[in-house]
Specification:
The chain is mostly helical. It has 3 domains: 103 residues, Multidrug-efflux Transporter Regulator, Chain: A, Domain 2 (Orthogonal Bundle), CATH 1.10.1660; 60 residues, Multidrug-efflux Transporter Regulator, Chain: A, Domain 2, CATH 1.10.1660; 67 residues, no CATH class. The protein is 48% helix and 4% strand. It has 9 helices and 4 strands, in the order ααββααααββααα. The strands form 2 sheets. A two-stranded antiparallel sheet has the order 1-2. Strands 3-4 form a two-stranded antiparallel ribbon. A hairpin with a 2-residue loop joins strand 3 and strand 4. Helix 8 runs antiparallel to helix 9.
């Protein structure tokens, strides 16, 4: 039987009832952190299998019900089944608010010596962080083919510094984050938002980064020069958590300020 694949939009629709605040950018962020690894079409678009959707659902439940940071969720994902996928019933909230089945025997919370999240006990501080994913190198034509935007629109986005190609010799190249930005800009343009108005998003992101920067730099210097590798790892985990929480807060605030645009009832 041929395996069924879902687009990122179909995955979003599938999860919307249980996770109304989840966004496409949130799913892409989880992918950038190596927590999910959807396959890609020849054009670069994501396609999700059912096990990958189950894994994504588990991550979102752990964030929503247990308020766990991504690094703890990553530990649990790495500690489960040999194929790395968590099943829908493998939920770790001890209160079981949704009446979901108990975790499987292989789940970390059912193992001998398991402790409650946040207790600080039983944490394996020797675990090495995941190696950062090597960034893709995409030509201008690669980005145009994958996103479907015009050459003129890509030029506008470059001029506004929404995407910033790097140089490899005499040729510019983009990475997967640039491609995602161009793709999202194209979808917003299709809904009527002029690309030049996207400067609002760029400035907002830069202000948010300004808030994060002193916290991350402080974490980098916390352990001194002799422990640079360790402090760098902790700082990057902190940055990941700040970005994820910032996105969730931003989505909640936007929903709040646009309540007046929705009909009551």
């Amino acid at each position: 039987m041929t395996e069924q694949f879902l687009s990122i939009g179909e995955v979003l629709a599938l999860l919307a009832e249980e996770f109304p605040d989840v966004t496409i950018s949130k799913i892409r962020f989880l992918e950038s952190q190596g927590l999910i690894t959807p396959e890609r079409t020849a054009s670069g678009y994501r396609k999700f299998t059912k096990p990958e959707v189950d894994r994504l659902r588990f991550i979102l439940r752990e964030q929503k019900d247990n308020f766990l940071p991504l690094r703890v969720i990553r530990d649990r994902l790495e500690g489960e089944t040999s194929d790395g996928f968590l099943r829908p019933q493998d939920v770790t909230d001890p209160s079981m608010p949704r009446g979901i089945q108990l975790p499987s025997p292989g789940h970390p919370t059912n193992r001998q010596g398991a402790v409650a999240p946040g207790s600080g006990a039983g944490v394996d501080n020797s675990r090495k962080p995941l190696a950062p994913k090597r960034r893709e190198r995409l030509s201008r034509n690669d980005v145009l083919d994958a996103t479907g935007v015009s050459t003129e629109m890509l030029a506008v986005l470059e001029k506004m510094k929404l995407v910033r190609p790097r140089m490899m010799g005499v040729d510019p190249y983009f990475d997967e984050t640039d491609r995602d930005i161009v793709h999202l800009a194209g979808r917003l343009a299709a809904l009527g938002i002029d690309p030049r108005l996207l400067m609002t998003w760029r400035l907002s992101a830069e202000r948010e980064a300004d808030v994060f920067e002193p916290l991350v730099r402080s974490a980098l210097s916390a352990r001194g020069v002799n422990a640079l590798g360790d402090s760098s790892s902790e700082a990057m985990k902190l940055l990941d958590d700040l970005i994820a929480l910032g996105e969730e807060l931003r989505t909640a605030l936007l929903r709040n300020v646009t309540k007046g645009l929705r009909p009551e009832g």
